[in-house]
Predict the 3D structure of the following.
Amino acid sequence: MLLQNPYDTDIRVRRKAEALVAAGYSVDVLALRSSTSSKRYTLNGVQVFTMPLAKKRGSLARYIFEYAAFFLWASVQLFVRLRRRRYAVVEVNTLPDFLVFAAASARWMGARIVLDMHEITPEFYVSKYGIGEDSWLVRLLERVERRSFHFADHVITINEPIRGLLVGRGLPRSKSSVIMNAVDEALFMPEPVAVSADVSVPGRFVMMYHGTLTSVYGLQLAIEALALARRELPGAALWILGTGPDRDELERLAQARGLGSAVRFLPSVPPSEVAAWVSRSDAGVLPMRRDVFLEYAFPNKLSEYIVLDKPVMIPRLGAIRHYFSDDALAYFEPGDAADLARQMIRLAHDPALRARVATQARAEYAPIRWTVMKARYLRTMGELARPDRGPAPSSPGGITLNAAAARQDARAAAVHLLRYCRANDWAGHDPYDALNSRLFAALPALDTRPMRLLLTQALKRSPVDIRGVARVPRTQNAKALGLFLAALLKLSRAGVPGADDLVEPMIERLIALRSPGVPYWCWGYSFPWQTRSLIVPRGAPNLVCTAFVGGALLDAAERGDEQCLDMARSAAEWIASELYWHDPDGAGFAYPLASARGRIHNANFLAAAFLSRVARLTGERRLLDPALRVARASVVRQHDDGSWPYGEAPQQRWVDNFHTGYNLSALAALGRDAQTDEFEKPLRRGLAFYRAHFFRPDGAPRYFHDRTYPIDIHCVAQSLITLTDLQAYDPDNAPLAASVFRWAMAHMWDQDGFFYYRVMRFWTIRTSYMRWSQAWMLLALATLIDDGQTVALAEAREPATTAGEP
């Protein structure tokens, strides 16, 4: 936690930090040093590291100096501590807003950044310094505020009206939450102390204010109101507990109004004794003035009076009115001493009224009390934290999530992602598009296999996207467009507005991107790519790209598009006639080129599933022969534990998440479309391996079966698709898919509306890839929310029959 205040006196931050410690987290705080604290100390389990800088109330220049000094110190300290400790979350507490950028090194290392906005900065400065609301400084502060909450992964505000204000300024509501300034009732309870004040005098009515003595909090108004009420309330008294720059002025005003004995300025007391003083009063008074800042204020002191069952006199300000009715507080018009005096008289003369007001305030306060806020805070931090082993401490025993709720949230995310993809005209970069670099094309000496591999891996693995420097253009990719088409058809079926209007234009784009010079309909990638053994030219048709485009065309054909069915039939003919091969050792489909006759299991299964679907829709049963032969050849290569290697060549023996997901989804589709259950056992064995080896307890999908990192967005997407496709085979797939979705939204979602590429062990690669990331995730989200899944699942549950040779 970063805090430009002394930690031991900041009640809000202490409440949160101690709640985290109690929930099992380790918490460090970087803060200012108070006059009573040391360089480093531990308080109730929280480690505090301090900077020797006094916080002084003064000029704007002094504030700027303090802000800059603490920013630099906190940036360096956090960077140094990151060498020893890996933080899951860094929480920055304002002011200032730009302090959030001191956590840049932690963000680079993969930590989630939380911005707790204690104040609304532009309004704070307008109130404090009388700056015009349309001044250049206010506009600058608003810009810094926007940059700050966009930089953060999550934003906390102190009440709902402030969140509404910030949402109006561009804060996505989905990345924000409200944690109220609610008092910890377990700590704010009166203890026996020597309170040297006699409140037992008949007719005595004691009102109390405790806090900082500045003009902002309107104590002058309270004194003026007491002077007006004094005639009817001779036994009334106002106790003022606190220190501040206006104390001398307030004492002079009380003397001038003849209230020397009625207004009592109490000596400073330890925080632990404040509740005892408040408990001896009859009512609280919070006479804040009204301005653009205080209209949104919700003071800590209000909660403290309420939990001690004291009625409170308070002005009619927006944030307070949002939470409390006229029956819960004794409202008066802001700045109106006569109206405040009437409330003083009203409460003093009617003890029963005081009791009713206090009871009603307690009831209306219940939904925002600290126990509720603490649970919300711990839930938020638990979702953001990313421990390496198992779930966050606030979720002992694993995460159980509601699949229906995840489906609703997936719909909202899909709408944002769809908007992002449309705004970019469905074009973007790709992890493997390095050979599209104009610099590479301009330097023929670089056109060698080692340099092609080196450049591809350098751009793919770079934590910063350097494709602009390398002059790699953004392109539309046929496979991405096929995934987009499949997603749009699902979104249209689910009733997402605007999705249906995009279907036909997407089909037209696919027609335009057909691979040239081939008599069949087939597709390739928008870049040349170097494998370990060969180079695939730009646009050269390949099996995997064509299978996914063909599958999307079949989706369109199933809703009546005959042209799409003809294109898909042609693609199936190309696969069956040009790519199918068999020998005494088995059979397969050539990939990535027709000349490359290796055994790539996901390519085999994908092509087999596509051919069987075309056969079912067109009645061309001859396509089932190569489909079933190749599927059987890959099924027999399944390991005893249920896994498949990527391929059978010595350099292809790894086992990964999304290719395994391809295999399982394709086998399920093949069995359904070919009407056979011969693949049921390998499918169930493969699903058991998949579920057991590819997911952390917190929902994060592992890339490899034997290690976690990198956590790739393609693994997230295929996990969502596979788990949803195979719900009929395991009822726990739906909650696991919900867990994966929640994890991805917490760790790989950018508030600009797209998904990051990869989470590494110590940092996150936040590059946006259109095919690899956005197209896959749009299809995954569409799969989660598609109402048509119900039909597919019902069909999957129907008893299958064993088909003979076609």
Remarks:
- Confidence is low (pLDDT under 50) at residues 387-401, 787-806.
- The first helix runs from residue 11 to 22.
- Residues 608 and 628 are 7 Å apart (CA to CA).
- The first strand starts at residue 2 and ends at 6.
